[in-house]
Amino acid sequence: MLWAALLPDRLPDDPQPRTDALDGLATWCLQFTPRVAVLEALLARPAVVMELEQSVRLFGGKRRLVERVRDDCAGLGVRQLGWAPTSLAALALARSGLSNGFAKPLAQLLDALPLETLTPVAAHQATLARLGCRTLGQVRALPRGGLSRRFDAQLLATLDQAYGLRPETYPWARLPETFHARLELMARVEHAPALLFGARRLMLQMAGWLMARRSGVTAFTLRWCHDAMRAKSAGDGGELTVRTAQATRDTEHLIRLLAEHLGKVELLAPVGDLELLATEVQALEEKSFSMLPEARQSGESLALVLERIAARLGPDRVLRPVILEDHRMEWMCRWRPAPEPAPRAKSRAVDVPQPTFILPKPLRLATENNRPLYQGVLQLLVGPHRVEGGWWDRTTKVDDSQRETTRQIARDYWVAVSEHGGVLWIFQMRLAEEETAWFLHGTFA
Question: What does the DSSP assignment read for 30-79?
Answer without folding.
Answer: TTT-S-EEEESTTSSS-EEEEE-GGGTGGGTSHHHHHHHHHHHGGGGTEE
